[in-house]
Amino acid sequence: MPLIPSSPPALDGKSVRELQSLAAEAVLPAEAPTRPVLSRAARLHLIDQLSRWGGSGLAIFAGAAIFMVMVIARDMPLRSTAFALMIFASLYLCRRYRKEFRRGDRIASRPFRWRSYYAATLAVVSAAFGAGAFLILPDGADPQTIMQTLALMVVAASIAAAFHIAHRAAAAAAAG
Predict the structure, then answer these.
(1) How confident is the model at residue 7 (pLDDT cuts 50, 70, 90)?
(2) Which end of the chain is more exposed for a tag (fewer CB within 10 A), N or C?
(3) Count of alpha carbons within 13 Å of 70, Cβ hemisphere only?
(4) What is the pLDDT of residue 74?
(5) Which of 18-32, 110-124, 146-160 has the lowest mean pLDDT?
(6) Residue 64 near residue 156 (C-beta atoms within 8 A)
(7) 15 phi, psi to nearest 5 deg
(8) Higher pLDDT, 4 or 138
(9) Rounded to an integer, what distance in angstroms lies between the CA atom of residue 138 and that of residue 126?
(10) What is the pLDDT of residue 173?
């Protein structure tokens, strides 16, 4: 009994090229990507757009946070201070990343790394902004106040996400 199994009879006597062509035919064709793959230049252009328009999205977060602290949580200074510290500390970091990139600092030589740092800090801004619903709403608030506050937060996050649409992950981080 041979240790090496014999090949199927249909493959006996075929050359290597014929076997390779049979193997290529047997492999399923690769599926075409559902969306076109962007070139590096196109992705760099989108990063530039993100850095240009991102400041407006950050301003939307800041404006909505100031409004919420001054109007909704005016009777709760400790809660509004905690909310303001969370949101403005994360906004400062996000704004600093954006400013350093726009100014041409060292991070500007690595635009894809900058984009990931910016999207990550934007997710922190969004999380701090979302925490405002729990921090600034008074205990036992009426349902209308709760719905108005949540509507304000959803609208502000949606508008901020629209300013970050050049990068889907950043837009999702802003809306999240």
Answers:
(1) low
(2) N
(3) 6
(4) 86
(5) 18-32
(6) yes
(7) -80, 170
(8) 138
(9) 21
(10) 92
How many C-beta neighbours within 10 Å does residue 77 have? 10
Any residues with CB less than 8 A from the CB of 5 and at least 6 apart, and which? none
Encoded tokens for 45: 């252009």
Write out the DSSP string of 64-86.
Answer: HHHHIIIIISTT-HHHHHHHHHH
Q: Whole-angstrom Cα distance, residue 155 to residue 68? A: 13
The helix/strand/coil state of 25 is helix
| 62 touches 156 (CB < 8 A) | no
What are the φ and ψ backbone dihedral angles of 38, each rounded to 5 degrees?
A: -80, 145
Q: Which range has the worst mean pLDDT, 16-30, 35-49, 89-103, 104-118? A: 16-30
Q: How many C-beta neighbours within 10 Å does residue 49 have?
A: 15
